[in-house]
Amino acid sequence: MRERARAALEASRFQHAIIAVIVINAATLGLETSTTAVEHYGTALTIVDHLALYIFMVELIVKIYVYRREFFRDPWNLFDTAIVAISLLPTAGGLSVLRALRILRALRLISVVPSLRKVVTALLSAVPGMTSIVLLLGLVLYVAAVMGTKLYHATAPEYFGDLPTSLFTLFQMMTGDAWSDITRKVMAEHPSAWIFFVLFMLVCTFVVLNLFIAVVVSAMDEEHAEESVQATHDLRVAVLAELAALRAEVRELRDRDRAPVTPGGG
CB 3.0 to 4.6 Å from 106: which of 15, 26, 115, 231, for a disulfide? Predict the structure, then answer.
């Protein structure tokens, strides 16, 4: 019974069905944000939402039955369990805000779709390498914010009035949002301010952020290389097993040929 359930869980059709349920559920949760859709199809949307939740619960129960302790050793299973558990939290009274968290079920696509799982795994493996870059970026932001506050707090208090405001302004500039407007407002009173802003943009946008990209790409390359090595190892093991089986068959045939033939009595 357990083996049949395992085969059903690992079948591609079942995985595709779960993906379809996740996509449909995400679409219905999006439709619930429309007042018109709720007025016309509110009951149907609620039914689909509950059915999707029941399907996810049954899937988790079957997985626990099939994999037992191995279920809790897989981080992706724990991820799915946490998302379903959030959906089961009460949404009445002061906890009505938790209804918005139901859309987190759409994140289950990450654990179901292998390509998305690989990307997230690579990103998580890149986190340790990002620590130094985050510290460097924080240091640059802090130094630039202190300088900007001391230099331009009187000229543009809405952007550099105090340290927190300066930090937010420089972070906004780092993302490329309205940085030229901020710069031109300050340059109207301080023509040489372009030196400060250009250096800041060069360091943060073109150096530090590109380091983030480099670390992520490197982590994804390493993940792909590990998968290639594992695939090669599995193929080698399968080939060696097949060769061992063939050798056993050949040895058995030779033993049969060498066995003495007993003459029949008559």
Answer: 26
- Classified by CATH at the fold level, domain 2-112 comes out as Four Helix Bundle (Hemerythrin (Met), subunit A) (1.20.120)
Predicted confidence (pLDDT) per residue in 28-52, tens digit: 888 888 888 888 888 898 899 889 9
Answer for the pair 216, 126: CB distance below 8 angstroms, yes or no: yes
Q: Dump the DSSP string for 203-226.
A: HIIIIIHHHHHHHHHHHHHHHHHH
Domain residue ranges of the chain, discontinuous segments joined by +: 2-112, 117-247
Give the up-direction half-sphere exposure of residue 120: CA atoms within 13 A in the CB hemisphere.
14
pTM: 0.62
Residue 110's closest CA among 18, 45, 28, 33?
18
CB 162 within 8 A of CB 149: yes
* Residues 194 and 187 sit within 8 Å (Cβ to Cβ): yes
For Cα atoms 109, 55, 113, give the angle at the middle one, nearest 5 degrees: 20
Q: What is the pLDDT of residues 218-232, one digit of tens each?
A: 777 776 676 666 667
